[in-house]
Each structure stands twice: as C-alpha cells, then as structure tokens.
Design brief:
Elements (H helix, E strand, L loop, with lengths): L1 H6 L6 H4 L9 E10 H14 L4 E6 L6 H15 L3 E7 L8 H9 L3 E5 L18 E5 L3 E5 L20 E6 L1 H18 L16 E8 L7 H12 L3 E6 L6 H12 L3 E6 L6 H8 L2 H6 L3 E4 L8 E5 L3 E5 L5 H5 L3 E7 L1 H16 L2 E2 L2 H4 L4 H12 L5
Parallel strand pairs: 2-3, 3-4, 9-10, 10-11
Antiparallel strand pairs: 1-7, 1-8, 2-5, 5-6, 6-7, 8-14, 9-12, 11-15, 12-13, 13-14
Helix pairs in contact: 7-8, 9-14
Length: 389
C-alpha cells in the first residue's frame, strides 16, 4: 500500500496533522459512513455481499449459527455458487458454539474457512490467549466494514428478534477498504501458508476522508493502536468522547486522560451497565473513583449491552473498530481500527455519542464512594486479574 499512498498522497491539514502519530500513513480518497447498531449495519453488509462480483472476505471473532448467522450464510453460499470467491476467518474460542452443520453447509457451496487458533493444545503454534478479535467484511476489495459487530443475533435489531446491543460500525469505500482486505489476506497467509491476490487495485476518489487502517499484528505491532490513541489524547484541546465496551485502561492511558482533563478538556467516557463479560466490568469499575477524582466524567449505559469501541477528539480525529481499552486488546488480540480525519464524520460520531450520553446515567463521585463494600472487594479482585480477562 506504500506505492498507492505515494501516488495519491495528500497530507492532512495542519490542524489535523497534530492529532496523527503517523500522518504519512493516512490514505486520502475514502468515503466513510457511520452505522449505528445491527439495525443499520447488517442490511448494508448483506446488500454488499449480494452484489459481490469477485470476492467476499469475512473475518469475525464471533460467528454464530443463529438466525443472523444463517442469513449471512445463505447470502454467501449464493455468491459462492455464482463463482465468487468467499472466504471466512472465525476465531475458535469466540465461535466455540458454531455448529458443524453451518460449516458443512457453506463448504458444500464452495466457501473456504480458516479457524483461527483452534482449541487444540497438541497442534503447533497453539496459543489459547491469542485470539482474532477483528470484525472485517470486505467485498471485491472495494467496500469494507469494520467496527464492533460480530455476526450474531445479539447485535440484530429487536424487531427482528435480536438482542439490540448498542454497537458501532463503519462502511468504507476507497483505498482503506483495500487495506482491510490486505489484513484479511495476511492472516490467511500466516496461518495457512497460502497467499492469494486480489483483482483490480485500490479504488481512489470515493470520498474526502483521510483514513489510516491500524492493526495489532500480535507481538510485532501490538502497540500501534494504543500509540495512536495516546498521541491524539495528548493533543486534545477541547473535548474527548470515548465509548468503550471493556474499559480497563492501563496506567499510561489513564495519565493521558487525566492530563487532558487538567488542561480543561471535557473528557467523557461511556461504559457498560449491563455486561456480557461481568469480570471485565468489575475490573473497570475499580478505576471509576480514580477517574472521577481526576476530572474524567463517566456515564453508564442502561442496556442492552454497550459493545461499541469509538473515540472522537475535538471534532477532528476519530477512531472506530474492534479495539477495547483493556489489556487483551493491547497485548494479545488481533485488532483493527480505522483512524479517521474527516470533520463531518467525526461530528456525526460525536452527535451519536451525545444521544447515547443523554440516555445514560452519570456517575457521581460522592455516590460512587457509597457503593456496597462487597462491590469494592469484587472490583479489586477482578482488577488484579485484568491481564487475563
């Protein structure tokens, strides 16, 4: 992708560049669309699959053989029958309950599968703690989706029988979609030893967004997303809006947040109320009093589960993807984020954040200190286990 950046390079504007730790890695010519919840994201994803001409590449931490999973399966099987190359990567732990019938159905229609790090200690390179937590869909190397949504009923709209989890995804056209596809192919090659190309070349000129596709590639680049977050937080001048499902920030990240609050930046964080992983929620709550004492404002989402992972800073720089502010995302998991320089998109993300905060419960330091003693014990106990949650 370095060649394409050189051909179509457009530097961020000076007021944008200060938020970027690697401004030369932002690719112009992208069109970004914010998708809120499965209600908006799933129909657009299905429409893109249905129109695929060459390839459909799906990478998902959780892939379930429920109503939503079968809806995607039937679409992908139909495209595979039409000679479209359909490939799926799913995580062995995240998709532990995926049925054999589901896999066989797709294989019978020509779909190729990669199970990431199977639960098999006797196999070479087996690693229980290293998971593929990404959520990527790329069609023909031209239209991409990423965010927090897995393929499961939990994220589907309640009117369609889903759980209605609060989540965020981004639909992207342009060179960044091609880069998402390259990430998919890199995982496939690393795990199987088989490389495959992609017809055509990165689409340019779809929109005005400058985008950096930032990925944690296990140990090699495990600090990349966190480094970008820290850089942007340290440049914040007006406001920081964070929505994060599993919020247990490390000490350095906390210092960046507290420093911003001391500079007069309005730092607000939206966290889960109802949680699908209670142990992580307890660990995160251990830090609430520290956050509040240092001027960070906290809001608790009332439910259903908040699963979004987004950041918006000063209406200029934003991030959305699979990256949680916890130690698994930082140190172990495969993750992907879109880091976006587009004021219109970022303002849209901020507007959605405002709507979510308006439905949420603010946390008061005085009231938080009065929580039951047993809650404090649980918070401390799970916080001590934060590196493994």
């Amino acid at each position: 992708m370095a060649v394409w950046r050189a051909l179509f390079r457009r530097k961020p504007a000076p007021h944008q560049e200060s938020y970027c730790d690697a401004p030369d890695e932002y690719t112009p010519g992208n069109l970004c669309k914010l998708l809120v919840d499965g209600k908006q994201a799933y129909p657009e994803m299905c429409e893109a699959i249905a129109k695929a001409k060459h390839t459909v590449h799906l990478e998902s931490y959780i892939l379930r053989s429920d109503k939503t999973g079968w809806k995607f399966a039937k679409l992908m099987a139909e495209r595979a029958r039409a000679a479209v190359q359909v490939r799926i990567i799913f995580d062995a732990v995240g998709s532990l309950d995926l049925s054999a019938d589901y896999i066989q159905y797709l294989r019978n229609h020509g779909v190729q599968f990669l199970e990431y790090h199977p639960v098999a200690p006797w196999r070479p390179r087996w690693a229980w703690g290293r998971r593929d937590h990404r959520k990527i869909l790329v069609v023909d190397g031209k239209i991409g989706f990423t965010g927090g949504l897995n393929i499961a009923d939990d994220y589907a709209d309640p009117t369609d029988g889903g759980g209605g989890w609060r989540d965020t995804a981004v639909r992207i056209e342009g060179p960044a979609a091609y880069e998402l596809d390259h990430l998919f192919r890199a995982v496939w090659y690393r795990e199987t030893g088989r490389w495959f190309g992609l017809p055509g070349h990165p689409e340019h000129g779809a929109g005005e967004s400058l985008v950096r596709v930032s990925a944690n590639q296990e140990f090699l680049h495990r600090h990349r997303i966190r480094k970008a977050y820290l850089h942007a937080l340290r440049r914040a001048r007006d406001r920081v809006c964070i929505a994060n499902a599993y919020y247990v920030p490390d000490r350095v990240t906390r210092r960046a947040l507290y420093s911003a609050a001391r500079r007069g930046v309005d730092v607000r964080v939206l966290v889960q109320g109802e949680s699908d992983v209670p142990a992580v929620a307890w660990a995160g709550r251990y830090l609430f009093e520290e956050h509040l004492r240092h001027g960070v404002k906290l809001y608790i989402w009332p439910g259903p589960v908040l699963h979004a992972k987004t950041v918006a800073i000063d209406g200029v720089w934003s991030a959305a993807g699979s990256y949680n502010m916890d130690h698994l995302s930082w140190l172990r998991n495969l993750e992907v984020n879109l880091h976006i320089l587009d004021e219109k998109f970022t303002r849209g993300l901020e507007d959605q954040f405002e709507r979510d905060v308006g439905q949420s419960q603010p946390v008061s330091l005085t009231e938080w200190r009065l929580r039951p003693f047993q809650d404090k014990v649980l918070e401390r106990a799970f916080y001590l286990l934060r590196y493994w949650l």
